[in-house]
Amino acid sequence: MKRALLSMIFVLAAVVGWSQDIMGKWVTEAGDAHVEIYQQGDKVNGKIVWLKQGPETKDKHNPDAKLQERKLMGVHILSGLSKKKDKWEGGKIYNPKNGKTYKCAIWLDGQNLKVRGYLGPFYETQVWKRAK
């Protein structure tokens, strides 16, 4: 009986821990892309793994003319985030819709991921949902 109870406690702890983890695939607020967030060393990054417009979609708004013909699939749009308390900060986010890169912070809010891009004192926050 003790073994069964301990097993249930460990399973429950694992499920709760996973649900609070930012790693995995997330659907952007507009629903037009999925971003896979993963850890690399002590940093967190995220890359595009699905696009509503299809895998051949190009990075046409990139300010670097040489990169405008690259496919967006696989592009790292989140990079260099470090955990600080309940947030991951100090990194960058690339917005392929306008070709600009911003400072970034992300954090969990319940089951949602808040993604905030900063430009000086101004910011915009999006809510991403976990992909199924």
Could you write a compact summary of the structure shown?
The chain has 132 residues and is mainly beta. The chain has one helix and eight strands; from the N terminus they run αββββββββ.
Structural features, described:
The chain is mainly β. It has one helix at 2-19, and strands spanning 24-27, 33-40, 43-51, 76-84, 87-95, 100-109, 112-119, 122-130. It is globular and about 40 Å long. The protein starts with a helix and ends with a strand.
Q: What is the terminal separation in angstroms?
A: 35 Å
Backbone structural class: mainly beta
* Morphology call: globular
Tell me the helix content: 10-25%
Q: What is the average per-residue confidence, as pLDDT, rounded to a whole number? A: 89
The total count of helices amounts to 1
State the total count of DSSP E strands.
8
For this structure, the quaternary state is single chain
What is the element string, with H for helices and E for strands? HEEEEEEEE
**Major sheet strand order:** 1-2-3-4-5-6-7-8
Share of β-strand residues:
over 45%
Largest sheet: 8 strands, antiparallel, barrel
Rg computed from alpha carbons, rounded to a whole number of angstroms:
17 Å
Uncertain residue ranges: 4-19
Keywords:
single chain, 132 residues, 50% strand, mainly beta, 8 strands
Q: What layout of secondary structure does this protein have?
A:
Blueprint lengths: L1 H18 L4 E4 L5 E8 L2 E9 L24 E9 L2 E9 L4 E10 L2 E8 L2 E9 L2
Antiparallel strand pairs: 1-2, 1-8, 2-3, 3-4, 4-5, 5-6, 6-7, 7-8
